[in-house]
Amino acid sequence: MLAFDDTDSPDGMCTTYLTTLVLEELSDLDLLGWPRLVRLNPNVPWKTRGNAAVCLPLGYGEGRGRLCGRLERGDIRWFKSGRPVDPVELLDRASAVVERHARFECLTTNPGVVSGIVRPSPATYWRAVREVVPLEDVESELATRGIHWRKFKGGRGVIGASAAMAWRPRDRTWEVIAYRSPDKVGTPRDIDPESVIEMDRETRRTFNNYDPENGHIAIAPGSPCPVLFGIRGDSPRELMSAKDMIRGERPHKWLMYMSNQGTEDHMVRRRVSELGPGDSAKVNGTVSSPPTTIPGGHVIVGLKDDVEIDAAFYEQSRGMRDAARALLPGDKVVAYGSVRSSPRSLNVEKLQVVSLSSHARKTANPECSACRKRMGSMGSGQGYRCKVCGARAPASAAVLEPVIRSVSLGWYEPPVSSRRHLHKPLRRLSRGNINKL
Ligand SMILES: [Zn+2]
């Protein structure tokens, strides 16, 4: 079993291109399971947007394989069973490929390559997706288990590679990635937007294809990397046909990955008092102060759990930001987000409005019960007095009207273009197609 990581690639896409090169060169080996594309903690300080690692369960397959890609070497299949390959030999061969392509523009990095018969402990994955893990911890775990590794430059990639190898999926999705012909890399991609919208409409279990709020085709990366497009979904069979629905430039090759994308594995339920910088957390809270809009169009809402925190809704989150702006004190919400240290805030990535408090607005002063005339105010909170007969009424006698709320109960999330790789889209929730344990 082989894994590698390249923490510095601009969007993680090139780690997957390297995957295809490794598979091309190690053409005598088979996949004993899906190739795995694993996203790690999106809040690490040296963060690259993608923070992706790849694990390839390589060996010698037995029986009939299932199609999972088409590369220059031909069809790629994965097998349910097979014989292992010598991990030291595998490490040497794969490292040679990484080294040879290290000058590739997307690989300006600290790659790490890991190879072993056994996997690191599941905790290695869970820590790397939720925390900042020191390289020494991972190296001692690998040494304990007899797993081999090689570092290039700083070798930070060993952390992600080990985490990818340690991943035992609880929930999982798939992504089919189509790559461009080498002579086209760097030129504008030719993808027919209409075909993406059609594919989005005609498939049931794909997600993050198209961003109607920004009119943006989300399956194609913005960077000049070899990826033509990537389609994510819950059904590998459906993805197989979804890729053929995209019109325009023909993919040079393609590969399907099993992934933790869209699983929300990075989120942990926490009390506000427990939150530390860089944490990703679900927080149950009550709105404690009315929303304020700050320059840039971002909205800040005071949220109280055991203690208070500012919940920040970025302008880019559009509809979710608008919902946040309509919250009022007393409303109960669940906020999913990442913790920023200064100013300390929870940057909200998904919101559930659980209950709305009732609010009333004063519409008029009370009438005098004797004179039937509107009474006059004696000052804020001081009650009322009739100017004709001098009768008094308490402040609570004012005529009130319930405030009509412009936010509804339910879920809110940012547009497709502003989501993180690990974000679990509502489309996955609503279609009830979350993979069970
Ligand atoms: Zn009166």
Structure explained in plain terms:
The protein has 437 residues and is of the alpha+beta class. It folds into 3 domains: 1-266, Alpha-Beta Plaits, CATH 3.30.70.2200; 277-358 and 417-424, OB fold (Dihydrolipoamide Acetyltransferase, E2P); 360-402, no CATH class. The protein contains 9 helices and 28 strands. The protein has helices at residues 13-25, 87-100, 122-130, 135-145, 157-166, 193-202, 236-244, 319-325, 426-430; strands at residues 2-5, 30-31, 36-39, 52-56, 58-62, 66-71, 74-78, 81-84, 112-115, 148-151, 173-179, 206-207, 210-211, 216-217, 227-233, 253-259, 268-269, 280-294, 298-304, 308-313, 332-340, 345-355, 360-364, 376-377, 384-385, 392-393, 399-402, 410-412. The strands form 6 sheets. Strands 1, 3, 4, 6, 7, 9, 10, 11, 12, 15 and 16 form an 11-stranded mixed sheet that branches. Strands 18-19-20-22-21 form a 5-stranded mixed beta barrel. Strands 2-5-8 form a 3-stranded antiparallel sheet, with no helix packed on it. A hairpin with a 6-residue loop joins strand 25 and strand 26 (392-393). The longest helix is centred in the N-terminal third of the chain and has 14 residues, at 87-100. The chain is elongated. The model is unreliable at 433-437 (pLDDT under 50). The chain binds zinc ion. Zinc ion (ZN) binds at residues 368, 370-371, 386, 388-389, 391.
